[in-house]
Specification:
This protein is mainly alpha-helical and 134 residues long. It is 42% helix and 7% strand. It has a two-stranded parallel ribbon.
């Protein structure tokens, strides 16, 4: 007879309650989302996501695809999520700046060192960590 605990793929995660699932699978994961995809707004909709989660959506685009012949249009299309009130200004900032700042500095704090955005990323990270401590 098989041991049920040996068959439990999540046993090693130490899940004791439902919220443990959220903590294990939401903060560390990032999802590349095309800026012109209205479904991206779901990443920020706490009403639609299990446990009221707000997912880490990383702005990406169709650059190189046939339907985006002019790369200057990619950011404009992403901004339409805000213009159509599918996301808030804070969501948009996180989508195009905050999530990437966190993602790329999680393993390499100096990732943006020497770049044009180094100071803004550092300022953002200080503010976002202070907010997380509240």
């Amino acid at each position: 007879r098989e041991n049920r605990q040996e068959l439990d793929e999540f046993a090693g995660c130490g899940i004791k309650c439902a919220n443990d699932v959220r903590e294990l699978f939401v903060p560390p994961f990032y999802f590349g989302c095309e800026g012109d995809d209205r479904m991206t707004a779901l990443a920020y909709d706490r009403r639609m996501n299990a446990f009221g989660a707000r997912l880490n959506a990383l702005y990406s685009s169709d650059l190189g695809h046939f339907d985006l012949p002019d790369m200057r249009d990619a950011a404009h299309e992403a901004y339409e999520l805000l213009e159509h009130e599918l996301i808030t200004p804070d969501d948009f900032h996180d989508f195009v700046f905050g999530a990437a700042s966190r993602f790329f500095t999680n393993l390499n704090g100096d990732f943006f060192k020497g770049t044009a955005v180094e100071a803004e990323v550092a300022k953002y990270l200080v503010g976002s960590r202070a907010g997380a401590d509240k």
